[in-house]
Amino acid sequence: MTSPVKPLVVDNLSFRYRDRQGAAIHNISFETKPGEILLIAGASGCGKTTMIRAINGLIPRSYKGEMAGQILVFGEEVKDWKLSQISQKIGTVLQDPERQILGTKVLNEVAFGLENLSMPRDEIFTRVDEALNFLKISHLRDRETFNLSGGEKQKVALAGVLAMRPSILLLDEPLASLDPASAQDTLDAVRALADQGMTVLLVEHRVEDVLRIHPERVMFMSEGEIRYLGDAQGLSKVVNYREVKLPAEQIVTRAKQDPPPVQIKILPGVTSSQLEKEALVKFQDVAFGYDTEREVLHGINLEINRGDVIAVLGPNGAGKTTFVKHAIGLLKPKSGSVFVNGRDTREASVAEIAGMLGYVFQSPSHMLFAPTVREELAFGPTNLRHPKEQIEQEVKEALKIVNLSDNENDPPLALSFGQQKRVSIAAILAMRSKILVMDEPTAGQDYMNYMNFMDSILQMPAFEAILFITHDVDLAVIFANRVLMVNEGRLVADGTPQDVLRDFDRLKANRLVPTSLLALNLEKLSATGRFMRAEALAHV
Amino acid sequence: MLVAWRYRKRKNSFIQSFDPRAWIIFYACFLFATLSFWDVRFLLPFFVIAIFTLITSGVKWHEMRRAFLFIVGFVFFFAFLTFLTGRGGSEVYKEEHLIREFRASFSILGWTPVLKVTVERAFFAVSQLVRVTSIAVMTILIPYSLNPALYGITFKGIGLPDKFAYAMDLTMRFIPTFGRDFQLTMDAQRARGYELDKISGGIIQQVRKLGPVIVPVTIHAIIGSEDIIDAMDLRAFGVGPRTWTDVLTYQFHDRLLIALGVLILVASIVVGFMGYGAFWVPEALTKIFS
User: Fold this and answer.
1) ipTM at complex level
2) How much is the pTM?
């Protein structure tokens, strides 16, 4: 009996980008089966995306360089195939759906590939409806793509690929910008596709989330090579639990053998006498709309006080970014007022507020411009007229915190996305504002890097309060002492993580999903009295 | 991701009652016909058409206020500048009839600024204002009135090949996307204490200081273009003739509009060949100021 042809065989694959030294991936070999989900994990820059680009044909067609080895799709080498041929066998969904969506309407977007294949219109409509039905988004068919939420955009991008009926699906960090419920929906859809026989290669930092859909195998990559390829159970035994986010129970088991983690002192610069002072930021009945017809923030009232480490949670499109942009004065309320250090933001310029409140934008590419990382970091403090010697010190410290000291002379725009994101955080850290506001600081970052820089940021004596927007419930569990939940432009919860996150119905209503770490913390709360990271729970 | 202009379906909109192909053809005819005249008497009917289209477009003032004021302000500024300097108009008139001369009471390095108000300059400014305003009004209305989902099939429908039609679709959406990226970059840099309005120094120094805005916007546009190309390649764009899911069908009134546009253009060309429509000033005025 002959064995069935493998959907994908990667044999001894190596690749070096034309303008870079050293290979991005070396000697990668593996094969897949029909109906299999292969989870690919690893730190930023380990070669995951390069491997995906080689499989979908963008390497070497769009990204030039030296390539060795071969890729077989259903037994045929794809080296000489046209990209259009490959795209009919292999569908790719990129990390950021914003970078993939081309159509202005959902129907046009999903139909795009089929139109290019010159299919009859009836066939196109049938396939579009099938893809939308499968992902349970038929109600979006006639909507405009730029008005969709992040989760909806991701599903529409996936539908556009599924409509072409590929046999192999490549997903490059599809959960990076999704709220937990949308991420779960996407993963359920992926599981269903695999169960129908599709081969799925899923690159993802959120390993714990993917493990819920029981991937058949897991690949762990490091420095361009495969370090582990096997079943999911074996992963936790071979990888460092500080490198990959594993389920809390597995971390607890492993961490019991290690000494307990050192407890960090959060915001050490805030003394107990300062806690009584006036609020740093005050929102009074704030309402806002981008146009006159639709209000997106309604009656927000809150104070940010010294010592607060606030996690802002909520679904995609809930108004979280709009809310925090009011704190730095980038947006002014339509009614109500925002006060920063007692000053109405209507009466102060953004640059004036920046000295008091530092704001890290979601996307680093909108701010990076300087020829070197060092100059990029010096830009903010120079604008704020800090003395030269002080700027040098601020830049050095910020680089150390984000683990980029070795890159200070590199051009920021030549770094990986994860590194660019860390440069954008360091650029604001160097300004030494009293309040730090970060919009999804961990999106697209690997676990070890973001845990390290979050630890370091919270221990910086310069900050009096920190606020971060996140979709990662565990980030709120580990680092926050206050949680704000925003939904449909309203503040729907404000309290300690223990109070806000224990209500699972409320989490569900706000498209959040309880994590294994949250569940374990709630289980042990009577003994611990507060939320802790898994490594610390191992020693309770 | 490319964003689209602020289109919406509007009640009783004259412009939206037509097939977009018909409107684009009419607009092209209008544009070239208007450009063939300098005579304000010939330009006035075009101005009337533009104002009629504006009033019946259904676009609310608050929606287009910024774009409208910017473009019309720009037109007024240049018409006024031409009036002051007399440059530009000298190509369409040979002699000038002085109405009044204003001489400055000071000199700069021996040169005394003089403003000559002549019949020709005044009429040229008025003609220029009417001509460019007519075109500007008709142009502004397009992004507010044409459905972005139909850009591609519209250009395909007026005869462009698939690739060019889709390229036009992307280009139409690139402009508002660029505007959004510019605003995001400005916001990100303002949050780092950067103040565009406080830039000082010489021209080269000022351009250098614009780097924090220009570099990210440019790089973002380049990366965005590469992403678009990758996304198109990954879904087999350009492998052959493509099917367009949207279908446009001409109605009787669409054909009438196209016929009207073509008629206006042909008539304008013929009138031009007959020697009419060139720059004009009332003879009576030239006699008074001769």
Assistant:
1) 0.82
2) 0.82
